[in-house]
Design a protein that fits this description.
The protein is mostly helical and 392 residues long. The chain folds into two domains: 187 residues, Growth Hormone, Chain: A (Up-down Bundle), CATH 1.20.1250.20; 187 residues, Growth Hormone, Chain: A (Up-down Bundle). The chain has 15 helices and two strands. The protein has a two-stranded antiparallel sheet with strand order 1-2. The longest helix is centred in the middle third of the chain and has 32 residues. It is globular, with a radius of gyration of 21 Å.
Length: 392
C-alpha cells in the first residue's frame, strides 16, 4: 500500500476520532444536569466517575489489545476499536440516567485502542526518511480534531441538543470502521515472529528496554502536565478577564489557541526530528514548553496570557511526535502494537493523575503555581532525555 495514501486516510480517520471525542467530553457535566436529571449537589461526583471510569479501563485494556494486534493484526484491532466506539457513542445518545452514562464510559474504555493502532500501522508503512513527517502530520490531525470538536459540539448542542452530538459521533466512528475495512491493508510482515534454527525466539519484555521504559515514564508525566493545566484554564482566564462581555466565547477562543498552534507546527517538529534526531527535537520541545509554562504564571493581563497559550502550543506539539518516532525506531513491526498500546496506557495514567495534582496545587498554593509545577516537570524531563542521549 502506498504510504502517502495510508497517511492521508489515517489522518482523516484521526481527525474524525479526535473531533468526535472532544465534541462530547467537555460537555458531559452539562449532559448530566440538562439531559439526565442529575442534581447540582451530586453532579461533581458523577462527573468524576464518568471521566475516571473510562481512563481506568483504558489504562488496563490498551496493552492487552496491543498484544492481540501483534498476534492477530493491527488493522483488525483498529477495526474492532472503531466499531465498538461507534456503538458506545450511540449508547451515549440513548442513556437515561447518570449510572447508565457511567456504564457507557466503562464500555468506551473497553473499546479503546484506535489511536495507538493507527500509529502502529503508519510507522510500518512510512519510509524511514519520512517517519517524522508522517507522525507529525498525524499528531497535527489529532490536535486539529481536538480544536474542531468543542466548537462543533457546542453549536450542535445549542441547536439540536447533546443527544444529536452522540449520534453524529457514532456515525463518524462507523465511517472510520468502513474506511479501515475497505481502504487500509494489514501492514506486511507485521505478524512475523522471529525464529532461530526453526524455533520461535522468546522476546525480552519491552519494559526491560531502557529507551522504551524511560519514554513510557516520560509520557506519564507529559500527560499529567497537560491534564494538570487544562481543568483550571477556564477558571484562570475568567480571573484574568474580570468583567467582560462574551466571556464564554473569549475563554473558548483562548483555550483553543494552543490547539491551533499545535496543529500548525506538529508536522514541522516531525521534519526537524527527522533531520536533526528525534532525541534532540524532544529535548528542545520539552525545554521550550517548560519555559513557556513558567511565563504563563507571570501575566496579569489576559492578552499576554493568550499569547503565552499560543506559544505553549507551538512547542508542546513537538513532544509526542518525537516520542512516537523514537518508539517506532526502537521496535520491530511485530512489536509495535504492544509498544503503542503501552504508550497509550501510560498517557491514560498521566491523565488520571493530572487533574488530582492540579486541583491540590491550585487549592493549597494558587492557580499560578500549577503553571510553575508544569514548567518544573517539563524541564526535569528535558534534562533526563538529554542525559539519556549523552550516555548512548
Amino acid at each position: 500500500m502506498n504510504w502517502k495514501i495510508c497517511l492521508a486516510t489515517l489522518t482523516c480517520n484521526v481527525v474524525f476520532m479526535s473531533a468526535s471525542y472532544t465534541m462530547l467530553v467537555p460537555f458531559l457535566p452539562l449532559y448530566l444536569t440538562h439531559e439526565l436529571g442529575c442534581d447540582p449537589a451530586s453532579v461533581n461526583l458523577w462527573s468524576g466517575l464518568v471521566f475516571s471510569s473510562c481512563f481506568a479501563i483504558t489504562a488496563v485494556m490498551t496493552p492487552i489489545w496491543g498484544g492481540l494486534a501483534d498476534k492477530k493484526g493491527k488493522r483488525l484491532m483498529a477495526m474492532r476499536a472503531s466499531f465498538l466506539l461507534a456503538i458506545s457513542y450511540f449508547l451515549g445518545g440513548i442513556v437515561q440516567t447518570p449510572l447508565q452514562l457511567t456504564l457507557m464510559r466503562v464500555f468506551q474504555g473497553f473499546a479503546c485502542g484506535l489511536w495507538p493502532m493507527e500509529l502502529a500501522i503508519m510507522t510500518i508503512y512510512a519510509p524511514p526518511k519520512k517517519l517524522g513527517l508522517c507522525l507529525g502530520v498525524m499528531q497535527g490531525g489529532l490536535t486539529a480534531g481536538g480544536v474542531i470538536g468543542p466548537l462543533f459540539g457546542g453549536i450542535l448542542a445549542e441547536i439540536f441538543g447533546m443527544r444529536m452530538s452522540f449520534f453524529l459521533a457514532a456515525a463518524a466512528l462507523f465511517v472510520n470502521f468502513l474506511v479501515l475495512t475497505f481502504c487500509i491493508k494489514e501492514p506486511p510482515d507485521s505478524l512475523a515472529i522471529p525464529e532461530k534454527n526453526g524455533a520461535a525466539v522468546k522476546e525480552p519484555h519491552l519494559w526491560k528496554n531502557p529507551v522504551i521504559r524511560n519514554l513510557l515514564l516520560y509520557s506519564i508525566f507529559v500527560s499529567m502536565v497537560i491534564l494538570l493545566i487544562q481543568p483550571i484554564l477556564t477558571t484562570y482566564i475568567t480571573a484574568l478577564a474580570g468583567e467582560m462581555d462574551n466571556l464564554v466565547l473569549v475563554s473558548g477562543f483562548i483555550f483553543s489557541l494552543g490547539g491551533f498552534a499545535s496543529a500548525m507546527t506538529a508536522p514541522l517538529w516531525g521534519q526537524f526530528g527527522q533531520h536533526h534526531g528525534f532525541h534532540k527535537s524532544l529535548t528542545y520541545a520539552l525545554m521550550a514548553a517548560s519555559i513557556c509554562s513558567f511565563i504563563q504564571a507571570l501575566p496579569n493581563n489576559l492578552y499576554y496570557f493568550a499569547a503565552c497559550q499560543f506559544a505553549v502550543g507551538l512547542f508542546f506539539s513537538g513532544i509526542y511526535p518525537s516520542i512516537n518516532a523514537i518508539l517506532a525506531e526502537s521496535t520491530d513491526s511485530h512489536t509495535k502494537g504492544r509498544v503503542f498500546g503501552l504508550l497509550f496506557s501510560a498517557q491514560q495514567i498521566g491523565s488520571m493523575l493530572g487533574p488530582l495534582l492540579g486541583g491540590v496545587i491550585a487549592t493549597m498554593l494558587g492557580m499560578k503555581y500549577v503553571f510553575v509545577t508544569a514548567g518544573i516537570i517539563l524541564a526535569a524531563i528535558s534534562i533526563a532525555v538529554q542525559r539519556q542521549q549523552n550516555k548512548r
